[in-house]
């Protein structure tokens, strides 16, 4: 468990960590601690800021972070003009005129504004079933969680029998 570190993408880390859930005799708190402890600092900080309390939530939030971050990193950072703190900015560099800056449509450049919006939508698949959704929205996730809980219960019963 200690050898697993978040070095690549969060999606890869979440996938590898979910495979580690098969290890018996680890409490939910231990699993959550290990998951958080091995994240890169920026991701751990964001999960703590959001106040995640359980492993399933932590994994879902972490997966949403990677999708958001990929969308941001795929575009070049614009030069800072305007009031970015309040959501403003240089509207002209986004393909909109000042009047059309309220996202009414692109400025006569052949639909370039719509193409830009499509570019930033996450195009990832669920790592649990490879479906067109995030793992946190996976219809098979409940079944997976039920199987994991059943394995934990069996392991605890075996442990109780051995120690009785």
UniProtKB/TrEMBL annotation:
<protein>
    <recommendedName>
        <fullName>Retrotransposon gag domain-containing protein</fullName>
    </recommendedName>
</protein>
<feature type="compositionally biased region" description="Basic and acidic residues">
    <location>
        <begin position="112"/>
        <end position="121"/>
    </location>
</feature>
<feature type="compositionally biased region" description="Basic and acidic residues">
    <location>
        <begin position="66"/>
        <end position="75"/>
    </location>
</feature>
<feature type="region of interest" description="Disordered">
    <location>
        <begin position="66"/>
        <end position="125"/>
    </location>
</feature>
């Amino acid at each position: 468990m200690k050898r697993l570190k978040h070095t690549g993408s969060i999606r890869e880390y979440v996938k590898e960590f979910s495979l580690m859930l098969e290890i018996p005799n680890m409490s939910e708190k231990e699993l959550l601690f290990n998951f958080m402890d091995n994240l890169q600092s920026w991701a751990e900080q964001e999960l703590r800021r959001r106040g995640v309390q359980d492993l399933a939530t932590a994994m879902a939030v972490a997966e949403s972070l990677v999708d958001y971050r990929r969308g941001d990193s795929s575009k070049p950072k614009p030069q800072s003009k305007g009031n970015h703190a309040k959501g403003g900015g240089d509207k002209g560099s986004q393909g909109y005129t000042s009047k059309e800056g309220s996202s009414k449509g692109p400025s006569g450049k052949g639909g370039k504004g719509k193409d830009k919006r499509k570019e930033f939508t996450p195009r990832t698949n669920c790592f649990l079933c490879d479906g067109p959704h995030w793992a946190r929205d996976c219809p098979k996730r409940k079944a997976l969680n039920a199987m994991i809980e059943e394995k934990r219960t069996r392991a605890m019963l075996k442990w109780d029998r051995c120690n009785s």
